[in-house]
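Recap for those who missed Tuesday's class. We walked through two folding examples back to back. For each one, the amino acid string is listed first and its predicted structure tokens come directly after. Nothing is annotated here on purpose, so try labeling regions yourself before you check the end of the notes.
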Amino acid sequence: MNYVYRIIVPLVAMCFSRPLFGQDTLKMSLADALRYAETNSAAIQNSAADVEISRQAVNQVTASGLPQVSVNANFLQYTQVPGNWVKNFVPSPGAPEYVFLQFQQPIASNATVSMNQLIYSGSFLLGLKAAREVMDISRTMAGKTRSDVALNVSKAYLMTLTLQKNISLINSNIALLEKSLNDVKALNKEGFAEKLDVQRLEFSLTNLKVQKEKLLLASAASLNLLKIQIGMPVQNPISLSDDLESLDKTIPVGNEPFDIKNRFEYQLLNKSLSISYLEEKRYKVGKFPTLVGFLQHQQTTQRPEFNFFQSNLTPNNNWVPSTAFGLNLSMSLFDGLRSKAAIADVKIRRTKTMNDIKTFQNAANMEYENALRTYQTQLEMVAVQKQNVQLANNIYASTVFKYKEGVGSALELLQAETDLKTGQANYLNALYDLVMAKLELKKALGNDILK
């Protein structure tokens, strides 16, 4: 049972958690687990939130190209009214040369409604395209997250199934060994078997029970890990309804050719490359003029006192309207070579992305070749181990018959039982490795787990 020793048990403390009182055990197939994860996995929920965040970012960029309407109002009251010293234009004997005049009323107020409309901006159009590309990246990332979660859920489900199957095998072997031990003890009392045979069987039985306890611990931790992968509270009791043989048939593997375009990683790298071209173009068109149209209406008033709620006022208290529209053209003539440096930076990062694409192409092809070779090898191993189990069964049946007839030894019987147990475990391991090889091949192809 080599796979037992490859298990990392990160949730040992959780394996002793007890289900809530009165809660029914939920039977769950692998397809059920994947559907549950699609709805409850925190990773999938967060990836969906990222898609929505990027969609709102597109809306924000789009909004900057739509009409912008604002309202502004203010009220002002002077505690000291400002004025100016002017030369006395009515000279008379004894009059001062300069007089202090106040032209401002102590109360002033105005209200303005303005609307701006972007007419042309190259940066805006490219920024909108880039925002949409980012949203596509978020969608691709969400697809990759769902694929990763499905793979992790499938692996946890398979590991738990295999551990539970091994526990079942050990229980059968323990029952078989206990029967053999009782038979040998009876023969030992009659003088037809040695005490050493009894001790050997007892030793083997003790080892099996210790092995069973280890498997129980690993199985409980693996089951809790599965619950966490699908987003289920670890207190909820579940049981697995699939078996390795049915899953081997449920997860089909065809002869489809390898196409790197199906890999999420490749799609993400290419989208990053597209964004870099848009970014470079944005810096270039940033030197182009930006044209904005505006419309403004304003109402102003100046009054000698606070009389806004009085009627029948003199004309000097009236609100004075003004309306204007126009265009605002702006462009950068020299930015201190900032855009040149930014374009150079974009090109350098693009070169790195292109290198990453080449590297991933080689790595993905290698991953596919290795996964395909492993799958083909595991197919052969399952066939061989299945034959070995049949041979071990035949040998064990013959050994039991010989032992009952008195022409075989307890040592031979113990060896036959050990070989049968090893053969069953090896077949289970081979079947587990085959299904895992299918999953890895599907991952290398960029395909869904159950399709």
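Example two. Treat it independently of the first, because the proteins are unrelated.
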Amino acid sequence: MPKKYRLGLIILISVIYACNKDIIAEKFAGFKNPANFPQPVYHFSTNEITQSKFELGRKLFYDPILSRNNTISCGSCHIQTSAFSHHGHNVSHGIDDKLGTRNAPAIMNLAWYTSFMWDGGVFDLDLQPVAPLTNHVEMDETMENALKKLKASADYPSLFNKAFGEQEITTAAVLKALSQFMLMCVSSNSKYDSVMRGEGKTFSTEEEKGYKLFQEKCSSCHKEPLFTDNSFRNNGLAPTSIDDKGRQLVTLNEQDAYTFKVPSLRNLSYTAPYMHDGRFYTLEAVLEYYNSKVQQSPTLDPLLKKETVSGIRLTDEEKNYLLAFLKTLDDTSFLKDKKLSEQ
């Protein structure tokens, strides 16, 4: 080959290699705070996001090895196409098809959460996976046995070494890796977000009217832009035969009876059924509940006691406007993000 062609080929290969390196480097951008979001509250200083830790966490999230009989993974009840909730199940089905008592909450935007679970029984994301992993109707495993299985596997010792620089697989490393995956489950690209960031989109007339109604009647609890204020409130649901008293089971305080964490309203189109026990299968039913079915109780949230009849009065027209606005909180890119999918 003539010298000039060899030189050209070398240059071409160098350019391709450089471009490929850039593409590879861009595949994992790490955690990014959306422009319209507040600063996260998670302690990143003790668990800095890295590609190897995130990928390890993703593998663990979808691996049934963490359950007693290797049949149930975190991803079994937190499905990406349902915004990492358990769509269609009023309460989640765990190991041996056992039923829990609560609806599996969506996993999204947890870097901004100050507590976890419907009752706030976990205050640190790095501790949260222990609850479902050891619950006898969820994964029914022990951390000790889970670690034994991970250590005996063909892949995990080297993956933990790559991520944490240590051959030893520890409980702390398992939990931090799972946190890394959950922290990267950020939903921030809905139409609402585009409007708030001034990216060229605008609300339709119905959506704008719904937004104004939302700000007037709903935003005290479902605070923008996360659409939760991380508080615990009794929204007047009549207790079922299970008589789940919510946060009181954690605090033992009678004032917390029947209070539950205010859920985010993001991606509601994909996370039915609704409420802590999944009793409502449509958003129309939820709105009608607040309009006419809120029950009086000693711990009912004061915001629902403002009117003669408990609840939030809504006309049929107002309900339609609210539904139009709530759809602007859907984020299909989050549901299809390949980096969050099972690999």
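Answers for example two:
The chain has 13 helices and two strands.
Residues 44-187 form a domain with the Cytochrome Bc1 Complex; Chain D, domain 2 fold (CATH 1.10.760.10).
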